[in-house]
Amino acid sequence: MLHRTFPARLFSSSSTPTRPSHVSVNGLKYRVPQPGSNLVGVVIDGGSEEYLDAARRAGRMPFLSRLLTATHDASSAPSSFILPRSPGFHALVTAQMPSLTNPNNVSMVTGVPASIHGICGNYFLDENEHPPVERLMNSSEFMRAETVFEVMQREAQAQIIILTAKDKLLSLLSKGLDLQSDRTLAFSIEKLGSAAQSHSNTAAASSSSPSTSNSPLDRLLSLTGRPLTDLSQPFFDYFSKGNTSSGHANALLSELSSADRSALERGEVPSIYNPLISLYLLELGLQIWKTLHEQDIMTILAATAVARALRPSGSSSDQEKEDAIFAAAESAIASIPPRLFYLSTTDFLQHKYLPDYPASLDFYAYIDSIIQRFTESRQQQQAAAHSALRDTLPFDIDQALPCTHLAMTADHGMNSKVGFDGTPKVVYVEQVLAGAGIRNRTILPITDPYVKHHGSLGGYATVYLEDKSADHVLSALKLLRSQPGVYTALDRNEACKAFDLPPDRVGDIVVLGDASTVLGKTPEHHDLSQVPHLRSHGGLDEATIPLVTNTRLQKAMERRLTRGQARNYHLWDILCNGTMEENDGNE
Asked: Model pTM?
């Protein structure tokens, strides 16, 4: 049977009777992905451009290097008349300040800055309470904006898959989603191991009666295509067998503690302080994507098989039978929801290792393999699936489903924060002011449960003064600006205007450290022995980060990204609007 091109009219608009062509989220317009589309947003926590540069220089990211190598398009005008373009796209973008995990992840899922969504760190001081109370902003109740996910699910019936390494992010990322719905999968890998163990114990206890559970964990397990204990095996084999030519293929494994190594060999989910947790997360996301794609192929093949069965030979013309199969496939594809994946890793590795350290190179080599498999596995999977049945179709099933668009960026960068002697370089803001008789309460928004990462020391602090008079604020600003290691200090209005911050969650003063300095409260408040070779973030020097896509973008979107005004929170604008046939980006 001759294969025709699959009907272009199916993809000419993503609008269906139940799905609009666009949705509006926080004043911005997003094109609804086509039925069966998979848009994948990957956030490498702490993923500075320097890590990509080091891995590519070392030859450890060959796929990404090919993806970003400019070539001439042989199908277009002669090469002498056009500039070469790469198959993918790469730009430097700016993070939300402070350059911390929560503000940037929330910015990326809402598409707007912290001044709108309200999350400007892990903590703020609520001065509406008497006495003032420090509030931890790890809950979606503190968010003031909708996410792209909740609007896409509510208005376009999109399926949302969220995997985060850090449990503190889960409530923020999954705001407004129905976690019990088949259209939602949202998990933190930090808690997945204990949840899976509890699930296993429950299943064993009730083995005498068949289970009809459709819990989120049941759905996750059904989509991995393998037990959770097997998901460690691919990268364990990859590193231990030396699958690269660098000679450092097992460096990352050799850095693991004996407990982490033993847990990995038993197939346990990596702990939050195991750098492999991020790779486990990406592998899990890839396995879910592959299983869902296989289900999509089965949906199309089942529908066309029914259409053929209802049109026995001789009952109609070949053209009528062909049209019936096309109509069945079109209806099947329209029933497949668009999918948005959000995969957010943790930065334990970046806090611990320099970009050119062997363990870092191993880590990014594996990320390279993840990008490659997201990009190429679709074709390999479809080619292998049901070949006998595929050959009876009047169209190429490879063209029946849209390709997977992936964009990878970071929430912030990372820098070493040490002096020439290799010890942490700290300005103790609260102590400096108190020593000058300026009573204050200093909040460090980087503070979170993961003290082994950074010891609650970062490049950003906000200060609440007891005396808020203009003269007192000015005196405090002058003193802070004079401190070695302080890049600048701004009053609340200046800081909120410069960095798009919510004024009611910012102190009277915002302080920024320079590239090699972190800010603390007092020496007694921080245990520097926990971070002897401190690498951290939070300041302006960690706010320039990479953004990479696995496909070309529309030229209008590429122009936007190279103007110097692009932000990492344009992630879903890029994926929804910049990868479509026509550009509907938010200029």
From this structure: 0.90
